[in-house]
Amino acid sequence: MPSNASLRRQRFLGGALGVIVLGFALTYHFFPRLLHVEPGQAPPRSMSVGGMLPGGNLPPQRVAAINELNAGPPLTLAPTAVIVARNRTDANLPEQKAADTPAVKALLDRATKALHAGQLVGDPNSAAALFMQALKEQPDSRHAVQGLFDVRARLVAEIDQDIAVGDVDASEDLLGALRTLPNAEQEVAQLETNLKTLATVRPMLAKAAGLLQQGRADQPPGDSALELYRQVQKLDPQNAVAEQGIFQVQRAVLDRALAAVAQNDFAGAEQQLAQAQAIQPGSQQMHDVQQRIEGMRKQRAGSVLAQASLALDAGNLELATKLTAQARTVDPDLPELAAVDERLTNARLYASYKPGQVFTDRYVDLPGKTPAMVVIPTGSFMMGAAADDKDRTDVELPQHQVTLVKGFAMARSEVTVGEFREFVRASGYVPDSVKLGGASVYDERSGALRDDPKADWQDDYAGQKAGDDLPVVNVSWSDAAAYAAWLGQRTGRRYRLPSEAEFEYALRGGTTTRYWWGNGTPERKVENLTGSGDRSRSGRSWSNSFRGYRDGYWGPAPVMSFAANPFGLYDIDGNVSEWVADCWHDNYIRAPGDGSAWINPGCSAHVLRGGSWGSSPDQVISAFRQGVDSNTRSGRVGFRVVREL
């Protein structure tokens, strides 16, 4: 095993060597001139007639050809060695009977060195002359035949490159040299044909390059670089200059697309992209620009949409709508558009609330807040009963469509005794049960309602002191309307009684069945209804009720004791019937179709909607309605409010 000292020396030498290699690599990368290397500089062409041409001493014809080429698009050609390897075929090598003599071997060595040095033809020391001399001395020398074939192949490759770049003079010089070689007739004939084609397309390519510089890449029709390049390709399908020129034309069109994006003209950019795609489908530069524009599109659309969101936050609906439209024009597939569209809809219809959202308004001039309100979605429904409904009455006809286009919020439950008491104390309002005296309350002995001159809004359905969480009863239509108006004064918002259409629409909650929970007896506790299982304090039961249903209450229950309907409303078809804003009409002929209240000034009767704790099943149907005197005060009647949005 090596000693510790040997290991330390090995590690030191290895580390030092690594540092030296790393330093050399960094020097080569960052300071290539120190090593006589120009980054990206291709080695000079080494194969020419008579040997290498010294740099900076090119013939005038060659300089002119190069300048003409540089006026057009850049070309990327394969090295001649690659072309030779690609075009290499069987050299038809002869069967050699004897080994090469020392003299022939010497000639072959000199010829091979000349070949590698690029001295192909043109003088006695060129590769072609030396291989031919070796072949003269030994006609069956396979190496000599192979060497001449390699010389010929390299000349052909170099001529192909000169033709590809449009250098006629260099091509003709090399072609003259190729004619001096044996067995080159077929290549010479093909290259002469290619040169004739080049003579035809060369002025076309020069003109196309000039049009490119003038900015006439693909326009105007009939006189553009693109059309000239297409014509060249028809004459010479393999022409590299034309192929590169078409890519350059596409680049110019793609630049126009990027310029359009810089001006926020994404529609114009799309048009330019379509034109670029037609020029050279599926190119890498096409793909790159498309990706770049797509990123810029998303960034721009996202920025505009963020401004729209800020405008919404500030309550500027008009500006938010305009900015959202701009964002959609830029990028209709932006994922965030859906959320902003929803906010815009909510802002237009629901004052930026969302359907189903629960909120309260605080009073602006004293402590307190409104009952909890739930936002009702806009929509259409068929109001009333169908003509073929066996349980319908004439007052529920004709069934007609009502469309509510304005959003509104409705109290989640009936107004409670506690909420109404707050109103009476703060406003000094005298309810009709006090001013006019009494109300109709339930009589346990007779099982019917009776007038009680002492009953008022603070009492329950039976004339007893009511808890604050019970729905207020024994109130007239005027009492209900006064409470709604007071809420509006306290909040600065528009509070009112619901219209009859709004109430039925909200009661149905989007359903079309007889009741919002279905067509028959509920399978669970949904409302405070007349159930066959309910009993009064003295054991009374209902003669007309929902069979098999029991909610446990005889009389009103505390609000929100049962389930909410699909719109989030409690006690909407049970507990107590409710006042609405409409005057009573015997049918729906000429009824409004927009959900507004149907009011005749000075009417003395208004509409009650929704079932109560004492309503028979046919009085709980969603379409059921009844008209009563506006001064009616009953232990079965209360109300809830609506807030306009």
Features:
about 650 residues; alpha+beta; paralog of FGE (formylglycine-generating enzyme); 5-stranded antiparallel β-sheet; 4-stranded mixed β-sheet
Helix coverage percent: 40-55%
The computed structural class is alpha+beta
> Averaging pLDDT over every residue, what do you get?
87
| CATH architecture label name of the domain at 373-644 | Alpha-Beta Complex
In whole angstroms, the N-to-C terminal distance is: 92 Å
Number of strands: 13
Strand content: 5-15%
- CATH level-1 class of the domain at 373-644: Alpha Beta
Shape estimate = rod-shaped
* CATH superfamily label of the domain at 373-644: paralog of FGE (formylglycine-generating enzyme)
Secondary-structure map:
Blueprint: H1 4-30, H2 60-70, H3 80-87, H4 102-117, H5 127-137, H6 142-164, H7 168-179, H8 185-213, H9 225-235, H10 240-262, H11 266-279, H12 284-313, H13 317-330, H14 337-350, E1 358-359, E2 373-376, E3 379-383, E4 400-404, E5 408-411, H15 417-427, H16 432-437, E6 439-443, E7 448-452, H17 477-491, E8 495-496, H18 500-508, E9 577-583, E10 605-609, E11 625-629, E12 637-638, E13 642-644
Parallel strand pairs: 9-12
Antiparallel strand pairs: 1-2, 2-5, 3-4, 5-13, 6-7, 8-13, 9-10, 10-11
Helix pairs in contact: 3-6, 4-5, 4-6, 5-6, 6-7, 6-8, 7-8, 8-9, 8-10, 9-10, 10-11, 10-12, 11-12, 12-13, 12-14, 13-14
